[in-house]
Amino acid sequence: MKVSKELNLREFEFWSGAKYFANRLSYKELDQLEHCIEDLYPDGATETEINDLFWFEDDMLCEWIGLDSKEVHDRQV
User: Fold this and answer.
1) Is residue 59 part of a domain?
2) Given a cut of 90, is residue 67 above it in pLDDT?
3) Collapsing DSSP states into helix, strand and coil, what is residue 15?
4) What's the total number of domains in the chain?
């Protein structure tokens, strides 16, 4: 069985290393990334694909919206 749902990144439940990174982003930054990810996955993405982007591709995500990933990781939550 396949279940699909539409939600924004503010509502997404990240896990593991992706949660650490996502928690350091503002709502505005998540909204910016949401538009980029929609372009990357025009037909939608799985929860694992989204989580893996935030866990393993944090440098790329930061580059997309003009941030330095080290500075983001150094932010206090």
Assistant:
1) yes
2) yes
3) coil
4) 1
